[in-house]
Amino acid sequence: MKQNLQISGEVLLDAASLKTYSTDMSHYSVKPQMVAIPENEDDIAKIVAYAKQESMPLTPRGAGSNQSGSAVGSGIIVLFSKMNAIIKREGRRVIVQPGVVHQFLDQQLGVDGLRIPYDPTSRSLCTIGGNVATKASGLRSIKYGTADSALRRSAFL
Fold first, then answer.
1. Alpha-helical regions (H) of the chain
2. How far apart are CA 134 and CA 60, in angstroms?
3. pLDDT beyond 90 at 8
4. Which of 66, 71, 91, 93 is most enclosed, with most CB atoms within 10 A?
């Protein structure tokens, strides 16, 4: 059943991988049934269709740096580490894949005097997808808001 998922990326079913992705930086531990690492949008569509067909929950995962347990789950962990490109920059707007590391994007924006307004302490390893999923914040969030408010504004400062 599990081996029927065919994607361009990887599908991990071995015990070591399942153990590795059963935890994040929280104290929670939930063993997944598999880990899927998509390379593109087509892979994501296949993963979602497979999960629906098999009635398996999906848990998207960036770097697993949050401390709330939101990167662990009992079904399919969808690890976005291979989807880490900056797709388009247009003025103060940027379109990125979910696996882009926060600090990397902030450095790229800094070339033009811009920055990501929120600043999680895990910025050197956390991903933009994870930031949005967990409404990441930081010390500047009182003034500039959180990841979801930056997304709603569709612009970085």
1. 15-20, 41-54, 102-110, 128-134, 141-144, 147-153
2. 11
3. yes
4. 71
